[in-house]
Amino acid sequence: MTSGSVPVVPPAGPVDVVLVDDHHMFRAGVRASLDARVRVVGEAENVDEAVEVIHALRPPVVLLDVHLPGGDGGGGTEVLRRCADLLAGTTFLALSVSDAADDVVGVIRVGARGYVTKAIDGTALSDAVVRVASGDAVFSPRLAGFVLDAFGTAAGDVATGDDELDRLSAREREVMRLIARGYSYREVASELFISIKTVETHVSAVLRKLQLSSRHELTRWAAARRLL
Amino acid sequence: MTDELRVPGAPVRLPLRRPERGRVFAGVAVGVAAHLDLPVRMVRVLFVVLTSLLGVGAALYGFLWLTVPVGDPADAAGAGRPPVLGRLARRQEDGRPFRLPGNEVLIGVLLLAAAVVLVVVRANGDAADLGWMLPVLVLLAGLVLAWSQLDVVARGRVRRRSGGRAQGILRIAGGLLLAGVGVLLLITEVSGRGIEPAVLAQAVVAAVAVLAGVALVLAPWWLRLVRELGDERAARARESERADIAAHLHDSVLQTLAIIRARADEPTEVARMARAQERELRDWLYSDRAEPGTSVAAELKAVVAEVEDTRTTPDGEAVAIDVVVVGDRSPDDGTAALLQATREALVNAVVHGRPPVSLYLEVGDEAVEVFVRDHGEGFDIDAVPADRFGVRESILGRVRRRGGTASVTSKPDRGTEVHLVVPVGPCLADDEPAAAQAVGEASVAVGTSPDGKPNGRGRSNGKQNAAAKEQAT
Fold this sequence. Notes:
- By secondary structure, chain A is an alpha/beta fold.
- Chain A has ten helices and six strands, in the order βαβαβαβαβαβααααα.
- In chain A, helix 6 crosses helix 7 and helix 8 (about 185-190) packs across helix 9 (about 195-210).
- Helix content of chain B is about 60%, strand content about 10%.
- In chain B, strand 2 (about 355-365) and strand 3 form a beta hairpin.
């Protein structure tokens, strides 16, 4: 998720964010690195605290670490499950150091709108926050790679209809491949001669498929990685 | 066989275990041979010879079968190693161990033959004893059937077979039935010829009722025992996992941190060490750590690690390479050339380009593709002088000689992207069922090539792999 040359502008004023991470140092680092478009209004360091704070503040965006202590041991996934009633007004952006496919896809399947790694720089993270706040999805190159891995890259795997949940369309796959190659949304748009809005639409569609698909291969793929 | 079981650096005497590899019946002979460091053949002959002496060998075999735990002697010896050497993420299984098919059938046939021999011998001699023989044999058969269940459970084969549980229940039920019949026959024998059927039925009902009552009383206790056993197992697994992590953290991470603190004034070196440590820890935590020579993805990671460790920007800054891999396959000559070209492209991107550097590898059915991207000024491939061997020969030439294509795109503000494609033969597709296992087996099957490399060369490789795949499925 490299930042484009023009920053994404929030609709109106800074976006309020609740920051959930069990490492004090990391929270401090994120707070310091976020730019003026984002405002941290609350913090939590374990599952129960997170659920409480999110319900109390109802922020538009929650930055959620995948690995959290407390609760029933479910970490970020558990926070999402217990905040399922807020999903209409609050979007979750998962943040993790983990490379494990089950961590990444797990939080997406329960409703997170994006996934970024903790190596992300402040501007890019702010971009991502603003982007999920405006209803779009945020994919890191690695998440795009997982998606391609799960949905398959063979020529016969192309979806023909929009309502097909189990396969990516040719365009969606092209977008995913560019993101996996390290392209920002802006770069993807100019590479494919489409608008950024269209890129965002494609990414959101892929996210929806990732969340809803009951594709046999996807479940098998997930099972092979001890996901289900 | 003994040679295969011995591990360099292992203790002189391997612990007594019944390995799954190379066993004919229950692996007793192989285990004893490994333990005593004798040829298996000799141990087997010894057992047979001893059996002819009043059945001592058979008794010994049976005793060892019941008492010696299943396991690989080498692994058991290795369990004594410091946990530092242990790992958290599991290794891919290297194929199914060799087993003689129809083991149970063989054992059954042998038992039957022994029974027939005994019956014939007895029939020729004292006919009165024959009445005792049959019930005892039936009883024994039932016991063997029920006890064989224990052995199967211990081997963990129930998990692997889909119908394992049903089979186990059948075994127990069959064993109970046989043993019951044997006992009944014995009782009839003791109480003289002929018990009235009514009395017999009454006795059976009473016995079953008593047994059911006892079972009912003991059930809670038994259930608790089972649950406690499961809990204890889980706790033990957690404990050993924690010990593993602690040992690893101590061994590598803490040391690296200490070195980093000591050299805090050298930012490049610190960044590089931190990156190398991060890579190692990630590999340790998240990857399945494929066997060497079975995974292009693993080889690519090694290439990336090498470039990250040895190359810097002209300013002397270490560069982290963002790697995304989709799919995997076993390496061949084509992917080897591709990886070499990828390495050159990465070096080029790190040294002459500008970070961030991204690497994307996609394994398809017919080709493997690589994209190496950096955010530098880029260069025009046609403007590169012919004498600059680097790009032209080492990146483009390598790939083209393998029938692949290579292209470089450079745009101002958008950096440079090297795109490499190498066609590959049919291979184990990544989304094949149980891909990990299949790959492991393929490597075993193909691993017989004379140069010791897990894969053959060139075109024949595809066929070999296809054959291996057929075998695997």
